[in-house]
Amino acid sequence: MRNKLVQKLVEHQGTFISGESLSQSLGVSRTAVWKQMDALKKSGYQIDSVPKKGYQLIARPNGIQEHDIHLYVQTKRLGHTVTYYDSVPTTQTLAHEWAEGGAKEGHLIVADEQTGGRGRLGRNWHSTFGTSISMSLILRPKLSPQQTPQLTLVAAVAVTRAIEKVTQLKADIKWPNDILIKGKKLVGILTEMQSEPGLAKVVILGIGINANQSEDELSHDERNQATSLKVESGLETNRAQLIATVLEEFEWLYDTYLEKGFSEIKLLWEARSISIGKKLKAQTINGTVTGMSTGITAEGALLLEDDEGIVHTIYSADIDQ
Ligand code: BTN
């Protein structure tokens, strides 16, 4: 009920909502509403309660609205405009729409909850209200469509660096761009593109971070063993600060990549990757390849050497490791 109540308050931010209408829409008594409001105030929510008018949300702890993120943003251009939604099916589709409407490179779409989050290889991505980070960044790089997968590796380096800066937790990268702690998934990255022949017109870089979810909130995830920053550190992460730090880290790595190519990023990626020098099983659309991973190519594809010494170049796959 707490989540739904917060959601209602967020939806009505800037206006009052009566105790009566809250109790009706949530199907609980007015006393229950009052008790929850009291609990929220004790946990740092600023809520105005005025007799006959009801309740108004003034400020939320750990918010990720534009003004929260802008407290921390120190980038040259990324994240200077932010569009926040409390609950959306997926920030990816919205970012595509904003890009089609002419949004500039660096425009960021964030949401407190996704109800139909998209993952790689057609999977779902689950984001819980108020505790996760779901963000999609609009990029307009001058790259060929074949080069854009490298951006997911740039992003993986940026996110692991940002996590380490903000939480001191050390995370590993699993090829191409899963971020794990002790083998459990913490971050997912999804790059989507709108292209013209020979040119990636728009790239939408989607990043989902399990930030403050409790173990219970993560247990839905059957396929991937998931974890969160809170589960790993026992501490609440300031989501706005982490988003701003991801933007900051991504900006300089992205600029380095655009200016100098992939070679410097490759070294940084390899230093944080757990996918090198191991026997891996790659499930590709053309079948399964098992072999020793000897590194990544200059394009970011994974090299797997099988038992016969044949080296396979893997561009897209699900990796078991
Ligand atoms: C994966 O590991 O499969 C990728 C997950 C990507 C999730 C992010 S959350 C923000 C953006 N919106 C989505 O629907 N997906 C990406």
Automatic annotation (TrEMBL):
BPL/LPL catalytic domain location: 67-258
Keyword Ligase: yes
Record keyword Transport present: no
Catalysed reaction, written as an equation: biotin + L-lysyl-[protein] + ATP = N(6)-biotinyl-L-lysyl-[protein] + AMP + diphosphate + H(+)
InterPro entries with a match to the protein in the record: aa-tRNA-synth_II/BPL/LPL (IPR045864), Bifunct_BirA (IPR030855), Biotin_CoA_COase_ligase (IPR004408), BPL_C (IPR003142), BPL_LPL_catalytic (IPR004143), HTH_11 (IPR013196), WH-like_DNA-bd_sf (IPR036388), WH_DNA-bd_sf (IPR036390)
Residues within the DNA-binding region(s): 19-38
GO MF terms, alphabetically ordered: biotin--[biotin carboxyl-carrier protein] ligase activity
Source organism, top-level taxon: Bacteria
Database matches in Pfam families: BPL_C, BPL_LplA_LipB, HTH_11
CDD domains: BPL
UniProt keywords, alphabetically: ATP-binding, Biotin, DNA-binding, Ligase, Nucleotide-binding, Repressor, Transcription, Transcription regulation
EC number: 6.3.4.15
Sequence positions that bind biotin: 114, 118-120, 185
Stored NCBIfam families: birA_ligase
Function: Acts both as a biotin--[acetyl-CoA-carboxylase] ligase and a repressor.
Entry's family note: Belongs to the biotin--protein ligase family.
The protein's name: Bifunctional ligase/repressor BirA
Species annotation: Alkalicoccobacillus murimartini
